[in-house]
Every structure is written in structure tokens, then in C-alpha cells.
Design a protein that fits this description.
The chain contains four helices and no strands. By secondary structure, the protein is mainly alpha-helical. It has one domain. Helix 2 crosses helix 3 and helix 3 packs antiparallel against helix 4. The longest helix is centred in the N-terminal third of the chain and has 27 residues.
Length: about 100
């Protein structure tokens, strides 16, 4: 998919439209909704979604593409930790 995106091939565009954009928009809308409810602190929702996706992508790159696993936690635990980091940083009054 990286090669396809770098070469501007159609499959990359389809992947972006069908997978990346809907996931980004879902998370963005959730953050905006929780900000409007007063549960999340003010921040740019697009940047926040990018940061969360970046954690996931980096983890996948080092473990799958480069086969380097300096993080010994199981995959499910990694995702839970990433989610906790994101949500705790967004909540008002989080330690």
C-alpha cells in the first residue's frame, strides 16, 4: 500500500477513501462531540486523530515491516495503552 500511495496508484486512493477517511471522520466526530459536552479539553480534533493513528502506524511499521519488537506487550495490550493515553490526555481533570 505504501508503494501504491507513493506511485499515486488507484488502489491507494480507494484504500484512503474506503478505510482511512471513514475511520478518521468517525474518531474526529467523537472527539468534537465530547468536546461540546465538556468532557474533553479543547484541541484540534484532526491533529488528535493523526497523533493516535501515528502511534498505531509506528507500532505496525516496527513490528511487521521491520520485524523489530522492542515492545514486548501483546498487540491487544498495546492498543489498549494507546487508547488510554489518548483518552486520558483529552479528559478534563485527568492526572
Amino acid at each position: 500500500m505504501f508503494y501504491s500511495a507513493l506511485e499515486h496508484h488507484t488502489p491507494a486512493r480507494h484504500f484512503r477513501e474506503r478505510q482511512i477517511k471513514p475511520a478518521h471522520e468517525f474518531l474526529r466526530q467523537y472527539i468534537v462531540k465530547r468536546q461540546q459536552e465538556g468532557a474533553f479539553r479543547a484541541c484540534d480534533p484532526d491533529v488528535t486523530v493523526r497523533a493516535f493513528a501515528g502511534m498505531l502506524m509506528y507500532h505496525l511499521l516496527v513490528t511487521k515491516l521491520f520485524e523489530t519488537d522492542t515492545c514486548q506487550a501483546p498487540g491487544e495490550s498495546v492498543v489498549e495503552n494507546f487508547t488510554r493515553l489518548l483518552l486520558d490526555s483529552l479528559r478534563h481533570g485527568a492526572p
